[in-house]
Design goal:
The complex is a heterodimer of chains A (165) and B (392). Helices cover 32% and strands 21% of the residues of chain A. With 165 residues, chain A is of the alpha+beta class. In chain B, the strands form 3 sheets. In chain B, strands 2-8-7-6-5-3-4 form a 7-stranded mixed sheet, sandwiched between helices. Chain B has a 3-stranded antiparallel sheet with strand order 9-12-11. In chain B, strands 1-10 form a two-stranded parallel ribbon. In chain B, strand 5 (167-173), helix 8 (185-198) and strand 6 (201-205) form a beta-alpha-beta unit. Chain B has 13 helices and 12 strands. Chain B has 392 residues and is an alpha/beta fold. In chain B, 50% of the residues are buried. Classes of the chains: A alpha+beta (165), B alpha/beta (392). The structure holds pyridoxal-5'-phosphate (PLP).
């Protein structure tokens, strides 16, 4: 991949709302060329979407819960972990799923409205799957950082003097 | 009228003009909602591993003085760094001095070499401290003007005209504050030729060396036969975003560094110990953070230069540091009036070019070491201001 393409991806990863004109001038490209690059990266699925990271703790009416679940599974012949992983990631409650090395096989991040809702998901849907051997559920108490972004950054303010040599 | 009070202040200090930067600082800090492009320091915080290393040094009880010249380990690391990055050879035993910022290195260098009345050629527009520092060291500053016509780089012929039998040293700064200009190797060779011919020392302030965007940086000390007559000044403030740590260094010929160390020993003793431990970590494991910051600076530079040109200000593309130096003469205003009115009407602070020397008049310094969001707003406000000026 071209150096400028990687630079563009990094910019968008940090801020998906940057305007094309701004990106173009930052990368010293013209606007058409920048649009073309973005379209190409979208087509190649290097860019999968443009999303917003919400700090739901700031939204008073909203009280959601997140849990990380460690899952041990028996891999199936031929398809290994992929088939069971797919059965799990298709559930809309599942926000992320990774295949892990170490003490368990799959790491799942699940979001629900209440702890009850997540418990029900684990007992009714997840642990009843044939290949699932065991699950360990950890509820998230507080989010400090997600995808490289710190939630309550107090040093957003500029502490520098207005004018300095 | 008050009768003349007796002044206890030494004449040569009394005669120093207060910095123009200071006046602007006073103006800007009284206002609210100001976006400042007036800062000469990074907007990034010091890389976390450096802060961590400094904490750890305190936990381990490193809270006493270090050797006068600085922690030996740090001097070794500095000399290793200069070797791998710029192919320079300095013996950490007696050719490296760790100082309280590049600022102190400049002061000690001048005091170590100047006899009363010795002349130092200072290329302007320049960092605001050079001329006063020469005066305080008992020297006579001789300024030469670099102009936009030559991309803010001094021409050998101009320099030659400024040389006299009293010329002891030349101060250069590349990449430059405030213009961002970077000297090419060939331009340095021209200067080197004069230094040899007229037998003077070059004080090369390379504090922005790591922040060059279009070409690889050549250290002046790496120019043939120049190491023996160059005092290289650098530090951690800019590249590693460590301005508040107050840590810099000087390297050069043994005789001069030892003389500088003597002054340093009797005035400062040593640079802050915890900052030295931070700096050690910065050199060992901080390169990737520097590269990341550098990428951001380059993107912002491109953005700001384009925005300034789009609003009709002429602006050269600076090769390094984090300043642009657009001309404001098309508005018909002096740089001082421009900066002051821009601040009052649009709450954007820039520094009038005149504070960096006569040849800076007609320009303003805009620092792009500020977030893209702030830069975007600042450029919009500035555009409005410039357009209104041009309609009148
Ligand atoms: C050209 C130049 N030299 C030296 C310094 C001082 O650096 P330090 O913070 O290391 O004293 C500055 C700071 O603005 C500078 O721009």
């Amino acid at each position: 991949m071209e150096e400028k393409e990687i630079e563009l991806l990094k910019l968008l990863e940090k801020n998906g709302r940057l305007e094309v004109e701004t990106i173009a001038s930052m990368l010293d490209l013209d606007v058409d060329k920048t649009k073309e690059m973005m379209e190409k990266l979208e087509k190649e699925s290097a860019i999968l979407g443009y999303s917003t990271l919400v700090n739901w703790a700031k939204v008073l009416e909203y009280d959601g819960v997140t849990a990380m679940i460690d899952v041990k599974v028996t891999p199936t012949r031929g398809t290994g972990f992929d088939k069971v992983a797919e059965r799990i990631y298709r559930f809309p409650e599942v926000k992320a799923l990774y295949l892990m090395s170490g003490a368990y096989d799959l790491s799942i991040s699940v979001e629900g409205k209440t702890m009850m809702e997540i418990s029900r998901f684990v007992s009714d849907k997840l642990s009843t799957l044939d290949s699932v051997v065991s699950t360990t559920t950890h509820f998230v108490l507080k989010k400090y950082k997600h995808d490289g972004i710190i939630f309550e950054e107090d040093d957003d303010q500029d502490r520098r003097m207005m004018v300095s040599p | 009228m008050k009768t003349q009070e007796k002044s206890y202040v030494a004449h040569h200090v009394d005669q120093l003009k207060p910095s123009g930067i200071r006046r602007f600082f006073d103006l800007a800090s009284k206002m609210e909602n100001v976006i400042s492009l007036g800062v000469g320091e990074p907007d990034f915080v010091t890389p976390w591993n450096v802060i961590e290393a400094s904490y750890h040094s305190l936990e381990r009880g490193f809270t006493s003085y270090t050797a006068n010249a600085g922690l030996f380990e740090l001097r070794q690391e500095i000399s290793k760094f200069l070797k791998t990055e710029y192919e320079l050879e300095y013996n950490p035993e007696n050719q490296v001095l760790v100082t309280v910022g590049a600022s102190q290195a400049i002061d000690v260098a001048l005091r170590a070499i100047l006899n009363p009345g010795d002349e130092v050629i200072v290329v302007e527009p320049s960092f605001v401290s050079y001329v006063p520092a020469v005066r305080l060291a008992g020297g006579v500053p001789i300024t030469v003007n670099a102009t936009e016509e030559y991309a803010f780089k001094i021409q050998a012929s101009q320099m030659e005209a400024a040389i006299t039998p009293r010329t002891k040293a030349l101060m250069i700064c590349s990449p430059n504050n405030p213009t961002g200009a970077v000297l090419s190797k060939q331009e340095m060779e021209e200067i080197a030729r004069l230094a040899k011919k007229h037998d003077f020392i070059v004080i090369s302030d390379e504090i922005y060396a790591d922040l060059t965007y279009d070409e690889t940086f050549t250290s002046f000390a790496a120019i043939k036969e120049m190491a023996q007559r160059t005092i290289l000044i650098s530090g951690f403030s800019k590249a590693f975003a460590m301005t508040g740590w107050r840590l810099g260094y000087a390297t050069g010929p043994k005789q001069i560094i030892e003389a500088m160390t003597k002054i340093h020993q009797y005035t400062i003793m040593c640079a802050p110990t915890m900052a030295q431990h931070g700096a050690l970590e910065a050199l060992r494991n901080g390169r990737s953070s520097v590269l990341e910051m550098k990428t951001s600076y380059r993107q912002r530079r491109n953005f700001v230069v384009k925005a300034l040109k789009d609003m009709g200000l002429s602006c050269h593309l600076p090769g390094g540091a984090f300043y642009v130096f657009p001309s404001v003469t098309s508005t018909g205003m002096s740089s001082e009036d421009f900066a002051e009115e821009l601040l009052q009407k649009q709450q954007v602070a820039v520094v009038p070019g005149g504070v960096f020397g006569e040849s800076g008049e007609g320009y303003v310094r805009c620092s792009y070491a500020t977030s893209m969001k702030q830069l975007d707003t600042a450029m919009k406000r500035m555009r409005k201001f410039v357009e209104e000026k041009q309609i009148q």
